[in-house]
Write a structure and sequence with these properties.
This protein is α+β, with helices and mostly antiparallel strands. It has helices at residues 5-21, 38-50, 54-71, 76-105, 127-142, 181-187, 200-207, 228-240, 334-344, 348-364, and strands spanning 146-148, 153-155, 164-167, 170-173, 223-226, 243-245, 256-274, 277-294, 299-311, 321-327. Among the domains are: 5-96; 223-364, Bactericidal permeability-increasing protein, domain 1 (Super Roll). Strand 8 (277-294) and strand 9 form a beta hairpin. It starts with a helix and ends with a helix. One of its GO terms (molecular function) is ATPase activator activity.
Length: 366
C-alpha cells in the first residue's frame, strides 16, 4: 500500500482541526512540522485513535509499517496498535448489528449502513443512538396506566388515592386498627387509673430492709451521704475538750496544758451504703493552738501544733507536725524541756490521739 504525501498532508490538516475541538491538539500538532517518517505515521494514528476513528487509524498504521521498514526501524509497536484498531472495528460492527436487530423487533426502521467515506470526511452522527432513544421513550409513554386490584379499574398517577377508610360508619385513618373481641380480652383493662398517695414511712418500712438507706434504694446499690458538717462540729468539740494535767513527779506538778482554739479544720466525711453494708469515709487536717498554765511562777506558755492526716488509714496513730512555741513568759529556757516532754512528745499529744480515736468510734457508730 502506498500513501501519497498530498493525501497524508490533507489527513494531517483534518486531524488538527478535529483535535482542536476536543482539546487534544497537543498530542499530534507536531505533524505539521514533522518530516514524513514512520514517527509521523505513529503520531497520526494515535490522534485518529483518540478521535475513535479506528478504521482511519488502521490505514495510517499500515503506512507506518512500510515507512518503518524503509527506515530500518522496528514495526512491533505498529503491529500492536493495528491489532487494537482491528478489535475496535469488530466491536463497533457487532454493536451496530445488535442495535439493528433490536430495532427490527420493536418495529422501527433499521438504520441504514453508512457509505464508505474518505479520511477527510467528518464523523457522521449515529442513527442507532436515536433509534434506541425513541424506543425507550415509546415504552415510557405506553406505561401510563396501572391496574387497581381492589376495584378492577384503571387509573393514572394523577388520580387521587384515598387515604382513609370507613369503620363502623365513621371515617378514620387508613392505618386505624380495630381490635377484635379476642384481642380486647387478651389486653384487658387499660383505662387510666388514679394514683393514690402512699405514706413515705410505711413504704420505707415495707420495701427497705435497711433503714439506713433511702426509700428508692431497695436494691441496695451505691448510695453516699455527705456528713461533713456533723463531722466537723463533733470533731471540733472533741479537740477542744483535750486537756492534760502534769503528774506530781513532774518539775511543775499541777500545771495544766489544754487546747484553746481549733484554728483550722479542713476535710470531708461521708457514709456510703452498698449492698446492705456501710462504709465510713473521712479525711481531715487541723491546726490547734495550745496553752500551758504554770501555777508555781504564774507563767503561761502558748504555741500551736498540726495534724495533717486524720483518716481511716491512720490505724489509731496520728502524725503531728509544725510544733511551735510562741511564748514562754518569764520561764525562759527552763520551760523548753517541760514543753517538749508534755506537749510535743507526750502528755497533751497522747490526749489528742485518744480524743481522735474516740471521735472515729463515734462516727462509725452513726
Amino acid at each position: 500500500m502506498t500513501v501519497s504525501f498530498s493525501s497524508l498532508a490533507c489527513l494531517h490538516t483534518h486531524v488538527l482541526q478535529s483535535a482542536a475541538k476536543i482539546k487534544i491538539e497537543s498530542r499530534f500538532c507536531v505533524l505539521v512540522r514533522a518530516r514524513i517518517s514512520h514517527k509521523a505515521f505513529w503520531r497520526c494514528g494515535q490522534a485518529l485513535g483518540a478521535l475513535q476513528r479506528h478504521a482511519d487509524a488502521l490505514e495510517v498504521y499500515e503506512g507506518g509499517v512500510l515507512a518503518a521498514k524503509n527506515a530500518g526501524a522496528s514495526t512491533k509497536a505498529f503491529q500492536k496498535e493495528m491489532e487494537k484498531c482491528q478489535q475496535k472495528i469488530e466491536e463497533e460492527q457487532k454493536l451496530l448489528e445488535t442495535t439493528t436487530a433490536s430495532a427490527k423487533v420493536d418495529g422501527a426502521t433499521p438504520p441504514e449502513t453508512a457509505p464508505a467515506r474518505s479520511t477527510a470526511d467528518p464523523i457522521p452522527e449515529s442513527k442507532a443512538t436515536n433509534t434506541v432513544k425513541s424506543t425507550s421513550e415509546k415504552k415510557k409513554n405506553e406505561a401510563g396506566a396501572t391496574k387497581d386490584s381492589s376495584s378492577n379499574k384503571l387509573f393514572t398517577k394523577s388520580d387521587h388515592v384515598r387515604g382513609y377508610k370507613i369503620v363502623n360508619g365513621k371515617k378514620t385513618s387508613y392505618f386505624h386498627n380495630e381490635l377484635s373481641e379476642d384481642a380486647k380480652k387478651l389486653i384487658g383493662d387499660i383505662a387510666p387509673k388514679k394514683l393514690e398517695r402512699v405514706d413515705v414511712e410505711e413504704e420505707k418500712k415495707n420495701n427497705s430492709s435497711d433503714d439506713k438507706t433511702s426509700v428508692w434504694n431497695t436494691a441496695g446499690t451505691w448510695e453516699e451521704r455527705d456528713t461533713s458538717p456533723w463531722a466537723k462540729e463533733t470533731l471540733t468539740q472533741a479537740l477542744l475538750s483535750a486537756e492534760y494535767s502534769l503528774p506530781l513527779s513532774s518539775p511543775q506538778p499541777g500545771a495544766v496544758v489544754k487546747i484553746t482554739n481549733v484554728k483550722s479544720l479542713n476535710g470531708h466525711a461521708s457514709i456510703a451504703s452498698v449492698r446492705g453494708k456501710r462504709r465510713y469515709m473521712y479525711e481531715f487536717s487541723t491546726t490547734l493552738e495550745w496553752e500551758m498554765d504554770i501555777p508555781s511562777d504564774g507563767n503561761t506558755c502558748t504555741g500551736s501544733i498540726e495534724f495533717p492526716d486524720i483518716d481511716g488509714t491512720c490505724d489509731g496513730e496520728y502524725e503531728m507536725t509544725n510544733y511551735t512555741v510562741k511564748s514562754v513568759g518569764t520561764a525562759g529556757g527552763a520551760a523548753k524541756h517541760l514543753l517538749d516532754r508534755f506537749v510535743k512528745n507526750g502528755g497533751l499529744r497522747d490526749v489528742l490521739t485518744e480524743k481522735l480515736n474516740e471521735w472515729a468510734t463515734l462516727f462509725q457508730s452513726t
